[in-house]
Model the fold of this input.
Amino acid sequence: MTKYRARNVGIAVALAAGAAILIGIYVASYRKSVDRGLDLVPVYVAKSDIQEGAAGADLGGKIEREDVLRKSVLSGAISDVTQLNGLIAGQTILAGEQISLRTFRPLAQEGVLARLKGNLRAALVPGDNEQLLVGVVKSGDRVDVVANLHYTVQRGQGNEIRRVASRVILRNILVLEDPKTAGGGLGGGSKKAITLAVTDSQAQKLFFAMKNGDLMLILRPVAKPNDSPDSVETIDSVLGDGLGLRQLFQLTGGVGLKDVNGQ
Done:
């Protein structure tokens, strides 16, 4: 009986020891996995905002190495800057964001098509140096489009008055290619062309103004651009703005600008 009890005690001790060993192995493994999740690993982040379309090979000065928790590493995060060679940014990357291959696409897609998506279209707009801001505007800038249009107003049977009006017809339009890149001289003359990104509906308004009047581009600021209220300018507003009644009478002979100029 004593031997039987001793054997049972030995078995129990052995089982307890085995269980303790298994528990120890499990705890060690768990701690190792936790510690591995807390390891710091190197990634690359943007030092400043990286614009969509930027070439990966040119980003050496715009990205920097930073250590982050392993569990915080984004999918596709690069471990070497050479991984960006042959790629361009497919979207804007903000300062502090990790550089991931998922936000880049092949360099073969660079150019106008790389900037178009959704309802955006590329429109080639011809003009002279002054109209297109040649030497001033460049790819990536934003412009407004001002149109000067001639039209007629019906006043009674057979009575038409020809008028002219100017106004901003499009705002905050992206320049895809500046005039020097977009087409050089057109038709062998002094005409050049600029490539703008417009929506399909904006393209209709732009084309109408191109065919029925004159256009000019005005460059928008980069820092906190603001827009004045919409307005339209005619000969009445240009010549009569700010004048008193006596001055208006002196200007028009008392018959009104519309009747004097037919505009």
